[in-house]
Amino acid sequence: MKDQEHIRQLVETQLSESPYFVVDVYVSGSRTTPKVTITLDGDNGIGIDTCADISRDVDKRIEEEGLFPKGYVLEVSSPGIDQPLKLVRQYPKHIGRQVRIHLKDGVTREGKLEAVDNENITFQEEIVNKANKKKKELVTATVAILDIDKAFVLVSFK
Fold first, then answer.
1. Which residues contact 51 (CB under 8 A, 6 or more apart)?
2. What is the pLDDT of residue 1?
3. Domains of the chain with CATH codes
4. For the chain, first and last CA: distance in Å?
5. What does the radius of gyration of the chain's CA atoms come to, in whole angstroms?
6. Residues 52-56: contacts with CB under 8 Å, at least 24 apart
7. CA-based nearest residue to 3, from 42, 41, 40, 29
8. Is 51 helix (H, G, I), strand (E, B) or coil?
């Protein structure tokens, strides 16, 4: 745990003047051969070349500090399509896309993301008309970010 926080601080310091940010840092495996997984994102996404550059810099810093003297595996990547949105900062770039939101109370909602602020997300949700069950209508819904357990961007292949 101590190593995770230290590595997170190293990377956050490195990225402080950039449009990129740390989503997650995870150290797993055995103490003799740990695996360090760093997930990064950017306000407009992040490319493989940027991940590679950051990986080289982080690797150099870990080596200089002697964090893992017996060796380690380092993986730096962007969040995969199957990964939930973990930070408020990840939402704005997905405005206009479909999201599926799993709330802490067990309810799942889905709609087109319209707006985000530090406290809420707003989306257009399609609901069934109570009078005419065959007819659906769009309703603007707002959900507090604190009420969200997980949120996923839905990919459309249309």
1. 40, 76, 77, 78
2. 58
3. 2-77 (3.30.300.70), 88-153 (2.30.30.100)
4. 43
5. 19
6. 52/76, 54/11, 54/14, 54/15, 54/20
7. 29
8. helix
Give the Cα separation of 22 and 80 in Å (integer): 14
Contact 69, 75 (CB under 8 A): no
Encode 21-36: b = buried (16+ Cβ within 10 Å), e = exposed.
bbbebebeeeeeebeb
Query: Using CA atoms, how far apart are residues 34 and 28, in angstroms rounded to an integer?
Result: 6
The sign of the torsion formed by the CA atoms of 18, 53, 36, 42 equals positive
The identity of residue 133, as a single letter, is K
- Gap between the Cα atoms of 53 and 59, Å rounded: 10
Reported pTM: 0.84
**pLDDT reported for residue 82:** 87
Structure tokens at 105: 């109370």
Give the integer Cα–Cα distance in Å for 116 and 111.
14
pLDDT per residue as tens digits for the range 15-48 = 999 999 999 999 998 878 899 999 999 999 999 9
